[in-house]
Amino acid sequence: MSLFDRLWGGARKKTPSPKPAAPAPLAVASAEPKGAVERRQSPRKNARKGTRALIIDDSPTVVAVLRKALRSAGCSTREALDAEHGLALLDQDPPDLIFLDIVLPGMNGFHALRLIRKNPAYQHIPVIMISGNEHAIEQFYVNRIGADDFMKKPFSRFEIFARIESLLDDDLVPRRKGLSTPALASEAIRPRTGSASA
Predict the structure, then answer these.
(1) Domain count for the chain
(2) 154, part of any domain
(3) Could you tell me if residue 180 is inside a domain?
(4) How far is 121 from 83, CA to CA, in rounded Å?
(5) Strand (E) positions, 2-90?
(6) pTM for the whole thing?
(7) Sign of CA dihedral 178, 76, 166, 66
């Protein structure tokens, strides 16, 4: 020990200098809104697998395309080539979803849809109307008689499932109980000469 240390009563203990405090973590804004995060974390309902679909269309080709696409995704289908047969199948076993052509032999799709919407047991079933006939498409957008969606022929497999995903979501399927159905502007829809195939 040096003389200087003895005069001061012993060696001085070095006091460690305080460490600088760690900076507070910065709040990072989420790149997604809270609602989007909550939806992603919640289990997503698979709106395709197990869906029971009723296809009413007088074109065997359209029926085959819809049947193949739907069954490839785990859906079950029943098919009818006219509205009368389709309504009979509906009475036997109500489906989860209906694809309904507008231009049909005998009763047209508009009339069939009106009957479906008048029955309280079927008012909740989503209906996608389909057609390639320009006059029928015009009538659809004029009347707005209770269909949930519309697909113009020809349509892609992607479009089919995009419609199903939205319509079978619990929050988006319309609940029509107690609602009246608007009257049809025209009972008979006939294809125009030179128009696209129905």
Answers:
(1) 1
(2) yes
(3) no
(4) 18
(5) 52-56, 76-80
(6) 0.63
(7) negative
